[in-house]
């Protein structure tokens, strides 16, 4: 499998506190790499560094063959990065269709106009319907975004992140606040996305992690304490003591 994203020795401190310390990470196409750890472990900071919303104090980030350490978010997106953040960022007063359409237009580099070329309008509508179908929002296209459940907010964000056909997808706690049925739907979506992209999954829900992950990294206090297959992490004593023990004995 091809390496789509590689981070070497990336670090970031805030006021003397090491939020992320010398992290190495490799994301491969066709694989889901989960990052787990207690609150304050540095997981969301790591996502920010990989996405470009935060600058690393040191280390290197590569997207494919290109060095991306100093590139801002929009430049990384052009290189194939898709992102969903822990805090939802939707246009609440717009419909599901309009939210996805805005994302598609942003990636395509043009804005929708009523009197625009018919072929462009047709292509936009087709792409919006494809993305809604991919995340199971086919029947919600006319719904106002702010009227959706929290779980459907997360699905809408994934649809918007997919608008640019990303080769790398960073997902920061997509299962947060989801019900049982919504979580199972998310697992199915992640498995469908997996063959075409490299996925980083930051998640507290261990059912999701151990259902989809090919590799798992455990972070504590900004540092990696273990990386390996799901079975390796289940049987890792340090991971058990630091985090998995909080989630119940079924993961031991």
Could you say how many structural domains there are in total? 2
What integer value in Å does the Rg equal? 18 Å
Q: Count every beta strand, where a strand is a DSSP E run of 2 or more residues.
A: 10
Outline type? globular
Largest sheet geometry = 6 strands, mixed
CATH architecture of the largest domain: 3-Layer(aba) Sandwich
Q: And the CATH topology of the largest domain?
A: Rossmann fold
Q: Unreliable segments (pLDDT under 50, ≥5 consecutive)?
A: none
Q: Helix share of residues?
A: 25-40%
Strand order of the largest sheet: 6-7-8-3-9-10
Assembly state here?
single chain
Overall SS class = alpha/beta
Q: Name the CATH class of the largest domain.
A: Alpha Beta
Total number of helical segments? Answer: 9
- Overall mean pLDDT: 88
CATH superfamily of the largest domain: P-loop containing nucleotide triphosphate hydrolases
Q: What separation lies between the terminal Cα atoms?
A: 30 Å
What do these coordinates show?
The chain has 252 residues and is an alpha/beta fold. It folds into two domains: 1-80 and 166-252, P-loop containing nucleotide triphosphate hydrolases (Rossmann fold, 3-Layer(aba) Sandwich); 89-164, no CATH class. It has helices spanning 43-51, 73-78, 96-108, 118-134, 150-161, 180-193, 206-212, 230-234, 237-242; strands spanning 3-14, 17-28, 32-36, 58-63, 66-67, 81-84, 168-172, 198-202, 215-220, 223-228. The strands form two sheets. It has a six-stranded mixed sheet with strand order 6-7-8-3-9-10, with helices on both faces. The protein has a four-stranded antiparallel sheet with strand order 2-1-4-5, covered by helices on one side. The radius of gyration is 18 Å and the shape is globular. The model has no long low-confidence stretch (mean pLDDT 88).
């Amino acid at each position: 499998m091809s390496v789509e994203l590689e981070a070497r020795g990336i670090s970031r401190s805030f006021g003397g506190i090491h939020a992320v310390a010398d992290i190495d990470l490799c994301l491969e196409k066709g694989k889901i790499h989960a990052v787990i750890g207690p609150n304050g472990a540095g997981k969301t900071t790591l996502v920010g560094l990989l996405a470009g919303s935060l600058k690393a104090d040191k280390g290197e980030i590569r997207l494919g063959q290109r060095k991306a350490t100093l590139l801002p978010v929009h430049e990384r997106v052009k290189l194939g990065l898709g992102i969903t953040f822990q805090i939802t960022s939707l246009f609440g007063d717009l419909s599901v269709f309009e939210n996805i359409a805005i994302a598609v237009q942003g990636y395509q580099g043009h804005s929708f106009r009523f009197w625009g070329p018919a072929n462009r309008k047709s292509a936009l509508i087709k792409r919006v319907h494809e993305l809604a179908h991919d995340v199971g929002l086919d029947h919600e296209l006319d719904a106002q975004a702010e009227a959706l459940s929290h779980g459907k907010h997360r699905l809408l964000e994934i649809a918007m992140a997919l608008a640019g056909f990303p080769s790398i997808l960073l997902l920061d706690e997509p299962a947060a606040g989801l019900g049982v049925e919504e979580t199972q739907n998310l697992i199915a979506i992640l498995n469908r996305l997996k063959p075409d992209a490299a996925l980083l999954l930051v998640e507290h829900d261990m059912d999701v992690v151990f259902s989809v992950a090919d590799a798992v990294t455990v972070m504590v206090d900004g540092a990696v304490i273990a990386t390996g297959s799901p079975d390796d992490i289940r049987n890792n004593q340090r991971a058990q003591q630091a985090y998995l023990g909080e989630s119940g004995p079924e993961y031991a």
